[in-house]
Amino acid sequence: MKKKFDPKTFTWSGVVPQTYAEENSAAGRQWRGTSRHIIKGREEGGSFDVRYFEVEPGGYTSLERHTHIHSVICVRGEGYAIVGSEVHPLRLFDHLYVAPGTPHQFVNAGSEPFGFVCVVDSERDRPQALAPEEVAALKRHPVTGPKVRP
User: Fold this and answer.
1) Would you list the domain boundaries of the chain?
2) Which of 84, 88, 131, 149 could cross-link with 60 by S-S, CB 3.0 to 4.6 Å?
3) CB 56 within 8 A of CB 65
4) Considering only CA atoms, which of 103, 18, 94, 4 is closest in space to residue 54?
5) DSSP label at residue 44
6) Tens-level pLDDT at each residue, the chain (150 residues)
7) 27-140: what fold?
8) Catalytic residue among 109, 118, 130, 138, which?
9) Element (H, E) at 48
10) Nearest to 33 by CA among 111, 120, 143
11) CB neighbours of residue 3 within 10 Å
């Protein structure tokens, strides 16, 4: 099934933007200014899903981990990803692999929307928030500390 891309609105035909995730600050799932667009979902068959995430200026995804991998390609704007104890700047067409079980967060570092395509397994686990002591360790780390949001 083809879904036509419209560069003026940065959307795909038939794809309705959704809320990124349920925010649950008590469980460590905090995020801001992020939407999720399912370009190819599990209901269309196959073993993978293709999603587009868009992060507004000043926005970020939740700091979390999964047992499945992420294959991410930046397609709009610029930002960075915290992956474990590393920070990776992301610009147009950069690719990033997030290994299973690795804490990660995506942050918009610019004044324009930051968008990335993320390919994951159709059958996958739910996001897992980091334990408070893990978040505290990342915030103390000299590389990730200044970059972790919120």
Assistant:
1) 27-140
2) 149
3) no
4) 18
5) G
6) 899 999 999 999 999 999 998 765 555 678 999 999 999 999 999 999 999 999 999 999 999 999 999 999 999 999 999 999 999 999 999 999 999 999 999 999 999 999 999 999 999 999 999 999 999 999 999 999 999 998
7) Jelly Rolls (2.60.120)
8) 118
9) strand 48-60
10) 111
11) 13
